[in-house]
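Feature request, filed as a ticket because there's no other form

It would be nice if the structure record came with a short human-readable summary line next to the C-alpha cells. Right now we just get the raw output. Example of a typical job, pasted below so the devs can see what we mean:
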Amino acid sequence: MSRVLTAAVERFPIAGAFTIARGSRTEAVVVLATITDTEGRVGRGECVPYARYGETVESVRDLILAQADAIAAGASRTDLLTAMKPGAARNALDCALFDLEAKQLGRPAWEIAGLSAPEVATTAYTLSLGDPKSMEAAARAATARPLLKVKLGGEGDPDRIAAVRRGAPRSRLVVDANEAWRPETLEANLAACVAAQVELIEQPLPAGEDEILATIPRPIPICADESLHDRAGLDALATRYDAINIKLDKAGGLTEAVMLAHEARARGFSLMIGCMVGTSLAMAPAMLLAHHADFVDLDGPLLLARDRDPALVFDGSLIHPPTPELWG
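Raw output as currently delivered:
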C-alpha cells in the first residue's frame, strides 16, 4: 500500500517564557510528520528538535522527508529502528505510523503496543528557572498542584530550592538541574534537597561527567535524562542512577520507549515519563506509558498559550488519555 509522507514546521507560543539552565524561549517549535494512505487515512506524529543533541528544526524535517520513499514502500516501525538513529525525527515517524496503524486496524495504539489501557495520570508542573524570589512566587501560584518540577541552574540552587518549598509547602517536589551542577557543589545541593524533602533529582551533572555519582551516598534518587537516550545506554547507568527519564524525542519513538521501559524496569530502575515543550499531539503517545511510571512529566501543553484542537483534557494536574481524534 503506497503512503505519502509530509513534514511541516509549526510554532506554538509559550505562556510567558520557559527557562532552564541552557537558556530561555518563548515558543515551542515542533515538526509534524503526516503519513496518508491510499484510503485517505492519516497518521500524525509530532517531535521537538533539541539543540542539546545537535538537532535543528531544518535537520529534523529533512531527516523525516528522507524516509519518504521508504515509507511509500511500506517501511514499518521496526524498520525505522535500524534505518534511523534515536532522536526527534524517528519519533515523529514512529508515532505517525502508530497512529496510522491504529486507524487502519481499528484498534487502539495501546493494544498494538502490547500495553494496558491508559489511565488518568497526575503530571508534574514545571517551574522555570529564575531568582529565588520569582521562583517562590511561581511556586505559591502553583501550590494547589500536587507535584512540581523545579528547574535549577547551578550557582545559588540551595536558595532556589528553599524558596520553592516556602512557596509550595505541601506539594511534592522533583528538581531538574539540566547538567548544571558540578562535583564541588553536589554536597550543598543534595543537603538543600534533603531539607526540602525533594523526592527525585534529575540529571545533576553533565552527561559523560557523572562518574562521581557511583561513589557518593545518594540520599535522594538520582534520575538520568541527558545521560540516557535508548536501551543501548542502560549499561553505563547501573551504578550511577536510580531512575531514568524516558522521552520519546530522545528514544526515537514509542516503539523504542516501550522496550526501554520494560528493560529498565527489569534492571531495577524507577521510571519517569517526560517530554519536551510540545503540544498535546506530542504528549498523547507518551500517555500510553504514564501509568507504568513512578513520575509523569507531560505538562508541555500546560506551558503553552495555545494548544492543538482537539487536545488532551487536563483537569488541574490530571491528564486524561487521548481520544482517537487526537492520536492513536
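Something like this underneath would help us a lot:
The mean pLDDT is 96.
The CA atoms of residues 85 and 98 lie 18 Å apart.
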